[in-house]
Write a structure and sequence with these properties.
This protein is an alpha/beta fold. Helix content is 35%, strand content 10%. The protein has 4 helices and 4 strands; from the N terminus they run H-E-H-E-H-E-H-E. The strands form 2 sheets. It has a two-stranded parallel sheet. Strands 3-4 form a two-stranded parallel ribbon.
Amino acid sequence: MLFETFKSQEESKWELQPAITEKLVDAVLNSLNMKDYFEVITTSDEVKKGKPAPDVYLRTAELLGVRPEKCLVFEDVVAGVIAGKSRRNEGMCNRG
């Protein structure tokens, strides 16, 4: 599984910024047994502006203690790609 491959890297940190509520995120991740893969889960409920604003990514980088330009973003929707690219960095953003 992709998560297991990346998670095995010592310096990698996984975070999740879904465009849904924290309650729904918990339900989905718990049902898939995936909650333990993520060190930080930041929802749009926790920031002033949701996607396509970069707020959720910037907050997550802050919580992880890493600079936004060191983050790699994988997104599944255009608004997320816009948010990922507008994080004020040169990081890669991929629509999956």
